[in-house]
Amino acid sequence: MKWEKSTLGELIKSYGGKIQTGPFGSQLHQHDYKSEGIPVVMPKDIINDRIETGSIARINDDDADRLRKHKLNIGDLVLPRRGDINKRAICKPENEGWLCGTGCLKIRLNDEIVDPNYLYYYFTLSQVVKSILNKAIGSTMLNLSGAILSSTELVYPPLPTQRNIASILSAYDDLIENNMKRIKLLEEKAFLRYKQIVREEKFQLKAFNKVADYINGYPFKPKDWKEEGLPIIKIKELKGGVQNNTPRNDGENVPEKYLIENKDILFAWSASIGAYLWASGKAILNQHIFNVKPFDKELHNWLYFSLLERIPDFINLSNGATMQHIKKSALGMVFLPIPPKKVCEEFQKETEPILNLIVNLNQQNTKLREARDILLPKLMNGQIEV
After folding, report:
1. φ and ψ at 58, to 5 degrees?
2. Which is nearest to 154 in space by CA: 113, 112, 103?
3. Comparing C-alpha atoms, which of 122, 68, 52, 75 is closest to residue 100?
4. 296 to each of 302, 345, 354, how far by Cα in Å?
5. Is the pLDDT reported for residue 91 higher than 90?
6. How many CB atoms lie within 10 A of CB 296?
7. Which residues pair with 289 in a beta bridge?
8. What is the DSSP letter of 71?
9. What was the pLDDT predicted at 98?
10. Mean pLDDT across the stretch 59-73?
C-alpha cells in the first residue's frame, strides 16, 4: 500500500481547500458579543480536543453573515493561532455554521483526498505537535500563521485506509465522550440534592477561609517538565484530564503537601476560576491552583458543591486586565452556607457513591486515552495494517 507525502499548502494548491485565520479585532469588537446567537470559537473554548460551550461568546445573525467566510463546515480543523497552540478540535455536525473566532485558524482540505477525521488524529501525533511548536514564532507567546501551517507535512494512505484508521481511533473517543456525559449527569444529580438541602435546612453563612485551608501548587518551571513520572496538574488538566502530552515529574524534590489524590477539591484561582473534584489519580499540583482541605472531614463533599455554587461570587472578586485572578485575602469575602454537622454527614454518606462512580469513570477514560495513544502512532506509520 502506497502512502503519500505532501505539505498542507501543496494539497490545497493541487486539490482545493483553505487555511484561514479568524477575524481580527478590528472586525469583531467586544461589544459585538451577545448572550445569545451564533457561537464564536476562541482558543479558550478548545478543551480536551473538543469545542466546549460553557463560556463561549456569541454574535447576532447580522454579524455572522458579515463574517460568513469564517463560518465552520463539518470536518474543519480548528486550532489556536497563539498561546496554547498544541490544541485542536474538529467541527462536528452540532458545530456547523459556528464561527472560527479571533485567535483561531481553520484548516479545510479536499475530503476526497484527505479524510477530516484522519487529519484531526494526525495533528495529535507528538512529532507533528513538536514540529508545529518548533516553527511557531514569539518569545513570550507562541504564534501560528497560515504560512507555518501550509508548510506542515502530511503523510497519508489511500482514503479507505484513512477512514478505517479514524474509525478505530474514534471508537475510543466515543467511549470517552459517553463517560463524560455520564459524569456530567452524576454531578448534576448530586448538585440538585445539595440545592434542595440549602432550600430546606437552616444553615450558617461562613467565610471560605474559616471552613477550609488551601495549599497553593508547586511553582514548577518548564525545565522541571519531563516525559515520565507523576503528571503535573495545570488548569488544562483540570478541564480535560491527564493527556499524553501532560508534562511530568518524578516528584523526588517536591514536598509531599503538593501531591494530590482522587477526590481532592481543587480550586483554580487564576486564568480560569473554578472548582474541580480531582479524579485522575495521584499527581502533583502546579501553582495557580489550591488544594482545598476542609477543617472538618464530614464537610468535604458539601464544601465542593458549595464552591461550585459560589463560583460567580469568586469571579466578581477577581481582577486583572489580561488574566483573571483572585487575591488570597479575597477568599474570606465569599460566604458559604454551612448546615448542621449531622446534615453534612448525611450528605457525605449520600453523595459518596456518586463521587466514587465519577472517579471510576474518569479512570476508565484515562485507560481509554492511554490505549488510543498507543495505537495512534502505530496506525499512522502503517505498523498496524487496517
Report:
1. -140, 155
2. 113
3. 68
4. 11, 10, 20
5. yes
6. 14
7. 268
8. B
9. 97
10. 94
Tell whether the torsion through CA atoms of 47, 52, 58 and 61 is positive or negative: positive
What's the CA angle centered on 64, arms 322 and 32, to 5 degrees? Answer: 40
pLDDT at residue 146 greater than cutoff 80 = yes
> Which residue has better confidence, 279 or 322?
279
What predicted TM-score, i.e. pTM, was given to this entire model? 0.86
Residues 6+ apart with CB under 8 A from 111: 75
H helical segments located in 61-115: 61-66
Per-residue pLDDT tens for 282-307? 999 999 999 999 999 999 999 999 99
Residue 77 CA to residue 346 CA, distance in Å, equals: 47
With H, G, I as helix, E, B as strand and everything else as coil, classify residue 137: strand
β-sheet bridge partners, residue 284: 232, 259
Q: State the pLDDT at residue 29.
A: 84
Q: What are phi and psi of 117, to 5 degrees?
A: -70, -35
Instruction: State the Cα–Cα distance between residues 71 and 106, nearest whole angstrom.
Output: 9
* Grid cell of 372 as nine digits: 488510543
The predicted-structure confidence for 68-77, as pLDDT tens digits, reads as follows 999 999 999 9
pLDDT of residue 140: 72
Using left for φ > 0, alpha for ψ between -120 and 50, and beta otherwise, residue 311 falls in alpha
- For 155-160, what is the mean pLDDT? 96
Q: Is the pLDDT of residue 321 over 70?
A: no
CA distances from 35 to 56, 58, 94, 274, 322 (A): 9, 6, 19, 20, 21
d(CA 221, CA 75) in angstroms, rounded, equals 37
Give me the residue label for grid cell 479524579. Answer: 279
pLDDT at 323: 55
Give residue 103's identity as a one-letter amino acid code.
G
Cell representation of residue 218: 508547586
Query: Measured between alpha carbons, how far is 341 from 331 in angstroms, rounded to an integer?
Result: 23
3-state secondary structure of 263: coil
